[in-house]
Amino acid sequence: MVVILKQDAPKQQVDELLQWFNSYGLKTNIVVGEHTTIVGLIGDTSVVNIDNVVANEIVETVKRVQEPYKNVNRKFHPDDSVIEVEGEKIGHGNFKVIAGPCSVESEEQIIEVAKRVKAAGAKFLRGGAFKPRTSPYSFQGLRADGIEMLLEAKKETGLPIVTEIMSLQHLDLFNDVDIIQVGARNMQNFELLKELGHSKKAILLKRGLANTIEEFLMSAEYIYAGGNSNIILCERGIRTFETMTRNTLDISAVPLIKKISHLPIVVDPSHATGIVSLVEPLALASVACGADGLMIEVHNNPKMALSDGAQSMTPDGFDETMNKVKQLAGFYNMTL
Amino acid sequence: MVVILKQDAPKQQVDELLQWFNSYGLKTNIVVGEHTTIVGLIGDTSVVNIDNVVANEIVETVKRVQEPYKNVNRKFHPDDSVIEVEGEKIGHGNFKVIAGPCSVESEEQIIEVAKRVKAAGAKFLRGGAFKPRTSPYSFQGLRADGIEMLLEAKKETGLPIVTEIMSLQHLDLFNDVDIIQVGARNMQNFELLKELGHSKKAILLKRGLANTIEEFLMSAEYIYAGGNSNIILCERGIRTFETMTRNTLDISAVPLIKKISHLPIVVDPSHATGIVSLVEPLALASVACGADGLMIEVHNNPKMALSDGAQSMTPDGFDETMNKVKQLAGFYNMTL
Amino acid sequence: MVVILKQDAPKQQVDELLQWFNSYGLKTNIVVGEHTTIVGLIGDTSVVNIDNVVANEIVETVKRVQEPYKNVNRKFHPDDSVIEVEGEKIGHGNFKVIAGPCSVESEEQIIEVAKRVKAAGAKFLRGGAFKPRTSPYSFQGLRADGIEMLLEAKKETGLPIVTEIMSLQHLDLFNDVDIIQVGARNMQNFELLKELGHSKKAILLKRGLANTIEEFLMSAEYIYAGGNSNIILCERGIRTFETMTRNTLDISAVPLIKKISHLPIVVDPSHATGIVSLVEPLALASVACGADGLMIEVHNNPKMALSDGAQSMTPDGFDETMNKVKQLAGFYNMTL
Amino acid sequence: MVVILKQDAPKQQVDELLQWFNSYGLKTNIVVGEHTTIVGLIGDTSVVNIDNVVANEIVETVKRVQEPYKNVNRKFHPDDSVIEVEGEKIGHGNFKVIAGPCSVESEEQIIEVAKRVKAAGAKFLRGGAFKPRTSPYSFQGLRADGIEMLLEAKKETGLPIVTEIMSLQHLDLFNDVDIIQVGARNMQNFELLKELGHSKKAILLKRGLANTIEEFLMSAEYIYAGGNSNIILCERGIRTFETMTRNTLDISAVPLIKKISHLPIVVDPSHATGIVSLVEPLALASVACGADGLMIEVHNNPKMALSDGAQSMTPDGFDETMNKVKQLAGFYNMTL
Fold first, then answer.
1. What is the predicted pLDDT for the residue at A61?
2. Residues 6 or more apart from D15 whose CB is under 8 A from it?
3. Distance from CA of C238 to the nearest CA of B (A)
4. Which of A67, A27, A88, A103 shows the shortest CA–CA distance to A260?
């Protein structure tokens, strides 16, 4: 941590501040310039509340030097993490596709889609049972029944299932779910993250619409710090001023996170853009820049989908896209 | 709703689409131009899933004409709502200040601050018991004990209390809380909003960091639709590219929401900027543009605050600011 | 400047870097921790290219400590600047209103509007002659003729005039213009800024749609460094994800800039929102938080305006708003 | 264009508005609902000033149906445009790499870099002579001398050159430049765009930091409408709240623009992120999602670069990246 003091800081107050840092076991090193005085702090500065330092009237600014995340930091864990779920691995060259409808709508629908996406090469089935919707008047999901239907589809196809949790209160319903998804709107639902940290389930953590990469990793840190290291990150677009796409896919986050964290990261091009014709090119871009997988919305009848029809592929469209994804993954010596 | 069809839409598919709209009881009106065909829909279009329409291959775009919010819409409720809590009114000329520390840290601290903010003219005491923190290693609040301390402070001073709920599971702990705050990160925690809709408590709903004004009103609509109309909105800054301030206070949201909704709206200049010296000028700006109140962080010792010290006023600073706020409110014939 | 070195930086390369800093006349101070090494630099670090330092393979990050702006920095110029144009002062308690149509459309129009805004209390007449328009098919302004008409309006009313320059090539046409406006889209047209730095004219510099406050001050620094200190800043809204308003007025920029710079700053609530009914509340908010003036669009017939009709006030509406602005300014002991 | 009228619009005013539309040769079609009245306009609505319509007191909102760009719209020009410069084609499967230093610093430097990037497979040499810099105290480029040095490098290597224009006044200096770059900060310098529309030179138009895709295409429309169809678009990152990268590369813009416009689009991963280690993965992502080329910063000694060292590759690094780009392009049957 580096602390910049105000020009006219009285010596006594400076000494008090230095003693306060020392009381936390930190070494201090002070450099006095004409217009600025810089205090360098060495040691475990995570024990110091940065807000308190800024609130001190002799302090101009404080700059943190170390990353605030530890468990998910590649510095302290140089090897790629590999997450294994029902025999399927994600990460470190294991590229996997998760596919399925935005919402589970009926047993027939989810089984039909599951069969098609499995045939196309997806290794996980997604489907929303609890649906976060902007409007209270929109379809809210089949809830517990939706999870039952996903489990039926798993029985039929063998595909492990991924579905979103919206509230801690529903946790018991997720006992047989293979990967619990934390949606973008819950990325900073810290009570939920803490509880999932005590679980052994794999967690698919989506980046929030307005969250920085550092905050994204800090949310993963919440889960990891609780004891659960089975975390898959998911970039799904951030909110910007652009209105032609639903969100802006932050593709740079993929190679950047691969560099600073050891966790696998997948990309959701469906939610990132909201436009079905952009899903394939962005899926290919994700493969090319090192993502560990994809999450794609597929619906057997997008026109009649109860949610997100505009961004859902048909099973036939998904077949075509998967062919191209497989070829490109093969070019990079990855098998799906 | 207005539906724009693609140039080359085949007549049969157009007819099918029109029939589908009719099946929902909607009147359709079609206008054919050289390059575009426009279908106007009249009736209750909220029954139609806009995603399905966009997913239709003959549709180019869909434009919604009516606001998606109803209960909170001023069109259907022209008079200002007034929220009354423990005898104190907010809205329609009743301007109220909510003040207190970011976090409750001890009984002594919260009682001392409560006395000071009451003396300065605040009518509600705020204090965080459950704290949403980006880092799992930061102080997480005193939780249930914090609420007990707030209730002690209420007993001592008579000030009704405002505190944030982070999870539905804690709802029972909020039985004696006067105003339940839904924080920015939970603005779209829809399960929580639904449950609060069944409560009779006043709800202070903060705008999310990346949420539009329409989404903000839709979250209020969730609570209102459940049967609870005691909603106070709170503008607290949105996330933008600017880094000198913690967030960007969207002051325009205040007069805009006053125009399109009947709910009262207060401003939180402390969280909006994160800089204590900006709190006073932004508080005055809020009064001048028609806000119904303010929420201000005050700490008896900001340097030692366990959270948000950099944006907390001292009690003495708060006295000065309140004098100016009162004078300006008086100029506008409002009493605090 | 503070330089953070990588954990494993070889001693020889560190020594080379330190010598390189010394060669610029800088004192270096090195603090070695377990995971990090911090180098503090003291002296005039503006001579060092920060990009070069970051590009060094042993450097992890570089953090600047001093503000990059000097001339416009309040630290080196504690007193408020007052800009005087044709006998009218702006800044340090001198609050002034600039008003007029978005575009000059005819001599009759501009004279009529000039008379009305003067009668209402405006001290400067604005009007666009050269118009930056997103579409090449939109009205582009009357150009040189527009400036002639503004000068006619000045002759009739005595109001000094403000109009926007879009290209260096037109500079000769601005000889009799009183305040040259640099529009948001040209805030970083550095060749233009340099040239205006050699002028003696007052410059109204508008903040760019995507520019930080620091960049805004750096653009003012360009003008100031060239020798022209007659600079009035103008906050006019930034681009965010919100779509209900045209831009998001960054009201916090007003008190923040007053704190860190000595230049006067005015607010343009018309462009900030694009909604005429929001102009008055935001004008009042601007007065309350310490702005030095306002810039407001007024058109004698907004329905027939050739640009920006939706955000233009009528002269009658402007009369009403000015009454409230004058009263509030009076409350703060300022006269318009 | 679709016009939504207010609920209580008096019949006489509605009739006046309809007549006003008719006076522009537009057909109107009115649909009256319980809460809303919709007017559909058919014909060339580009003649109507949308601002005037919004400013009408009986109008609630106006929604445009047709794209405002014509010449660059794929609807009216279904085939890909191919831009040919000095025998090198860009677009429609012709993938080209533009490479070179941020700034031209000396004849030796630019010639050395030119030889290296040519050997690696680049077909165009970039180098800044006029440099837009945030600070007036930063290196501003070698200006006219820089262009001379680029021409020397062209003579040595045969590579056509790309360099940025910052002001119309310098246009004469660009007579021998092969591709004139319009930088992000000048994307809406409309006077410059108009003049370049009268040129025959190829123009590389970079997207502005805060500009939507629609505005980007409208700026291309300015050039095209003037008579110059030799336009290459360049996505180079937009400004968002994320701070770990300099900008956020909007990769979705590539396939989206390919869909709605016929112009070629290249990607600049160097400026998009400002981090050299991200350039290669983003270059590959760009190839995979259909970009027509790349623009990459290469410097023979990034540590000593006068600008943008942190994002510049070394020639050796560029060799490696180009090998991967060529292989991937080959996989897609494109040759560089």
1. 85
2. none
3. 9
4. A67
Chains touching B by CB (3 or more pairs below 8 Å): A, C, D
Distance from CA of B206 to the nearest CA of D (A): 20
pLDDT single digits (tens) A113-152: 999 999 999 999 999 999 999 999 888 999 999 999 999 9
| A96: helix, strand or coil | strand
Please tell me the distance from the alpha carbon of residue A79 to that of residue A262, in angstroms, as a whole number.
6
Which residues numbered 25-84 in D keep a CB inside 8 Å of some CB on B?
A: 27, 29, 31-36, 38, 40, 42-43, 61, 63, 65-66, 75
pLDDT digits (tens, 9 = 90+) for C121-157: 999 999 999 999 999 988 899 999 999 999 999 999 9
Q: How far apart are CA D61 and CA D38, in angstroms?
A: 10
Class of domain B74-331: alpha beta
Q: What are the per-10-residue average pLDDT scores of chain D (336 residues)?
A: 86 89 86 79 80 84 85 95 98 97 96 98 98 91 97 98 96 97 97 97 97 98 97 98 96 98 98 95 98 97 78 95 97 90
CB contact under 8 A, A134 and B239: no
DSSP letter, residue A48: S
Alpha-carbon torsion angle D195, D197, D202, D203, nearest 10? 70
Phi, psi of D83 (to 5 degrees): -100, 125
Q: Does domain A2-63 have CATH number 3.20.20.450?
A: no
Residue B7: is its pLDDT beyond 90?
no
B56 compared with A260, residue with greater pLDDT: A260
Asked if C164 has any chain D CB less than 8 Å from its own CB, the reply is no
3-state secondary structure of A204: strand
A4 three-class SS? strand
Q: Which two tokens stand for residue A237?
A: 């677009």
> Higher model confidence: residue D12 or residue B163?
B163
Domain range list for chain B: 2-63, 74-331
**Does A332 touch chain D if contact means CB atoms closer than 8 Å?**
no
Q: Find which of B64, B260, B289, B323 to mutate to test the C interface (most C CBs within 10 Å of its CB).
A: B289
C132 and D215 in contact by Cβ < 8 A?
Answer: no
Give CA B22 to chain center in angstroms. Answer: 37
Looking at residue D262, its pLDDT comes to 98
Is B305's pLDDT higher than 80?
no
Compute the distance between CA of residue B49 and CA of residue A135 in angstroms, rounded to an integer: 11
Q: Where are the beta strands (DSSP E) in chain C?
A: 2-5, 27-32, 37-42, 59-63, 83-85, 88-90, 96-100, 124-126, 161-165, 179-182, 202-206, 231-235, 265-267, 293-297
Which of B214, B236, B252, B332 to mutate to probe the C interface, most C CBs <10 Å?
B252
Q: Residue B284 carries which side chain, given as an amino acid letter?
A: L
Write out the two tokens for A324: 């191209």
Tell if the CB–CB gap between B212 and C254 is shorter than 8 Å: no
